[in-house]
Amino acid sequence: MSTVIFRKGLDLKDAVAATLAKDYHSAIVDDLIGHGFRRVRGRLTIHLAREFGFCYGVDRAVDYAYQTRKRFPDRTVYLTGEIIHNPHVNDNLRAAGIRFLSDAGEPREPLGAQAVIILPAFGVTVHALAAYDRLGCTLVDTTCGSVLNVWKNVKRYAQDGYTALIHGKVRHEETLATASQVLKYPGGRYLVVLNRDQASRVCSYIERGGDRDAFLAEFRDMASEGFDPDRDLRHIGLANQTTMLMSESLNIGEMFRQAMCARFGEAALGDHFRAFDTICTATQDRQDAVETLLDRETLDLMIVVGGYNSSNTRNLAKICAARLQTYHVADADALRSASEIRHRLIDAPSGGAGQEVAGSGWLPAAGTVRIGLTAGASTPNNIIGQVVQRLERFAAVADGA
Ligand code: SF4
């Protein structure tokens, strides 16, 4: 039985538009945008970054998931895991009867040709896709075009004998999927680096060699099977997980360029080193917009809204935290009272959802207060609107209004 794959929607965009609006629209966010991304209520002024929230890839993936439910009301519809990193969106899909293969108790084995499987915006590994294909079921592929663009680059590296050096989080679904692309080619190899520290150790090995066993002990779980640093760092091509911090990715790219230059010489650099910026435009726009907001406005604090396992949200929070007091909150419920807030530690280690902590005294108790606001690419407007409502309520309470 052959697999049916939908890649361009299911012709039900109009049919699900009202449901999507009901689930994710916010009149408050519309009001903010309509008033120059600014809203004043009493002593509180909220400044919203000009690019925030749902990106084109997330918008499309969520739309396709709703279309899938509508198109196949009598069939079991599965998601391979979270469609995007926002718990509210995922819970809405569960409530609509879509089952998550990553949930406890769900099947890991063949699902039958009647199953409909939705692939998330980050894509799935080559291995997983082949397994779903063998089932002969129906697939709805929501992999974002910007992720496909990264795959195109790493596949080209592999074809040409270059190791794909990926700046990303090794357990993030997108990076797993991207890394797997190079394995389609004989001798295809990859190495993932998380940050500047790891990049500098790889650069040092490129330039001067070193303790091979120590290198492998550190990077074994971040590299393709059989990775040999003496052989596989002679030709490298750079790529990024699309949601990394742009400034860090550029910096790491430059570190590798210099290391390859030192090792092989400027004249031979083109034979050993390739680079292609694969940060997506939506990520870049959100990072640029929040920098602009921080440059232009005098703010008392920043609120960044989004799932704790959302890479791009965490990077927005990191940018803000370098400039002023910043709280990364999952949703409005994190704002417990005018004095108490629950938020994710900005510098919590990568992987998983990260540690949530309780903070106090987050909202100035009196006088004017100016709050900057942004949200990650997987945060819907209704969640942002609820945060604004809560801010306004607590600002009024703290002021005794
Ligand atoms: S963050 Fe970028 S790559 Fe990821 S879904 Fe959105 S647009 Fe696509």
Q: Secondary structure elements and their pairing?
A:
Layout: E1 4-6, H1 13-24, H2 27-34, E2 38-41, E3 44-48, H3 56-71, E4 77-79, H4 87-95, E5 99-100, E6 116-119, H5 126-135, E7 138-141, H6 145-159, E8 163-167, H7 173-181, E9 190-193, H8 196-208, H9 212-219, H10 229-232, E10 236-240, H11 246-264, H12 269-272, E11 273-275, H13 281-296, E12 301-305, H14 311-321, E13 326-329, E14 340-344, E15 356-360, E16 369-375, H15 381-398
Parallel strand pairs: 1-7, 3-16, 4-5, 4-6, 6-7, 8-9, 8-10, 10-11, 12-13, 12-16
Antiparallel strand pairs: 2-3, 14-15
The protein binds iron/sulfur cluster.
Shape by Cα distribution: globular
Number of helices: 15
Helix content: 40-55%
By CATH, the topology of the largest domain is Cobalt-precorrin-4 Transmethylase, domain 1
CATH class of the largest domain: Alpha Beta
Largest sheet at a glance? 5 strands, parallel
- Based on helices, strands and strand pairing, what is the structural class? alpha/beta
Number of domains: 3
Low-pLDDT stretches: none
Overall number of strands? 16
Mean pLDDT rating: 94
- Which compounds are bound in this model? iron/sulfur cluster
Strand order of the largest sheet: 1-7-6-4-5
Assigned CATH superfamily of the largest domain: 4-hydroxy-3-methylbut-2-enyl diphosphate reductase, catalytic domain
